[in-house]
Hints:
The chain has 188 residues and is of the alpha/beta class. The chain is built from seven helices and four strands. The protein has a four-stranded mixed beta sheet, covered by helices on one side. Helix 1 links the parallel strand 1 (3-7) and strand 2 (32-37).
Amino acid sequence: MATVVFQNVAHEHIRKAFLNVLHQYDSLNDYKLILKQRKVKGTTMQAQPVINLTKLLGGPDRYKIKLAKYVRDSNSLLVSELPEDVLCGWFAHELGHVVDYAPHSTFGMIKYGIKYLVSKSFRKEVEHRADEIAIEAGFHEEILATKRYVFSHDLIDDTYKDQMRKYYMSIEDVEMCINKKMPLQPTP
Length: 188
């Protein structure tokens, strides 16, 4: 299993959920993963490579997953109090990003990050791919639970829900993927 470092993650519920999800991602066994709970601007969780400029042609061997204390735009929805399936779905999506990042060199990841920031269609493609990877790893029910939670919770801001609708797979798309009724590709 990958080397995991928890930073500022006090709740056992979070640690256990993360490790349970990571257990399904054998391709990440050779990496160091840092789960750091801290204030995260504009989101609830964010996976990123730890860039080492001395290894421009080699790929990153460490990734950090930033984890907010509260669900985005909320001062009352603690991540540590999320239902287990919702938390696992969120982690499955973030680890899907890490799987997607892993084949890229450091230089490739820099280009990838810039493209993510400037291209809305690339961003949508990347977010769909993270969900696809999570679904293929066996987390379809957890991905659905997370989406249902976000879209149905009254304390989650509509701006966040709109961002989810714009860039991420819909509940219907995830259900169709589970039933293998459609290819795992974002709609334009």
